[in-house]
Amino acid sequence: KTRIDGQNAQLEADLLKFAIVINIPLAVFDYPEWKKLVKNVDACLISTTLCHIRDILIPQEVGHVRTVQIKELWMCENLTITFDGNTTRAPESESVYTIHVITVDRVVYVFEGNKASDESHTGHHLFQILDNLRPSQFTGIGSDDTGNTCVAHEKVQKEYPWILNMADPCHHLNNLTKDICNLPHFKGIIKDVHRTVKFFKKSTIANSHLKKAHRVHMILCGTASTVTFEMNLQQFFSVTKPLAKSITCLESSHATMADVYVFWLAIMASMNYTLQSDIGLPNDVAKNIGHLCNYHFNQSIHDGPSDIFITSFFLDPCFQNSNVLKGINPLTINMLRISGASGF
């Protein structure tokens, strides 16, 4: 009996891990076909059920993981706590709030995940998370910059002033990208591309019919409509590509605080070059893009909750010979601005 109990326990643990890693519905374990499969493998084994996994195995595993996490994190210093919201997959999409704790070795611990609520991103809730460990272990806190999270940041920093309040650079860059996409000049090209990709990516037959229609109706490249489409698409790529690349790089676990400032400088320089180039952007559109870049740059770097990005850039030995740091009078530092086709 002891051997059978051990086999059942191991089978349950392996099945739970398999279901979570492969992301299969737990309801599979209630299917009669599954019960028959287990019985055919070994008649002494007991087939697990959805209720057993949901009500017993998962809570047990959560408790075990939390114990191991706290034991490991208690040995760490200079931790960073981050929190963010996300949405689960359809059809039953739900808002989920996750809290991560990151070590100086860039090891990320998923510390908590729950349905998003008014309590899940308040200062009181963060105090509870910090108290599970020791507030003195933490040196940084970060999240997106929504109203509730900003208030939570301020409460935590007021109580523990040594914890640095860090803005989410990817959140700011994503907001800048959305603002550019919302400009009326790009509405048409975004709509056309979205409708085309949404339809044709799901049907190989539709692609074949499209190619056939090209030949039948003698639709060729170089017409006025295709040239306009290509020009508008190139304009859109030119102003959003630096942002997309920067977001991808800064989402890496190897990105540093200094990298945030470096990528912002690269974005501003790239935008300045693009808006000064002859890519067919109307002057008013170039001005609007420039204003948006300046606004989000200042919001993230100059008007952020702390000067950690510039400070990290200054202290990073990799940039000690950077031209950005040469000949600076700290009393007369001007904000970095970019100009459009006719200046703004």
TrEMBL record:
Q: Which InterPro entries match?
A: RNaseH-like_sf
Identify the SUPFAM superfamilies for this entry.
Answer: Ribonuclease H-like
Indicate what this protein is called per its UniProt record. Answer: DUF659 domain-containing protein
Task: Please name the source species.
Answer: Pleurotus eryngii
Organism lineage string: Eukaryota, Fungi, Dikarya, Basidiomycota, Agaricomycotina
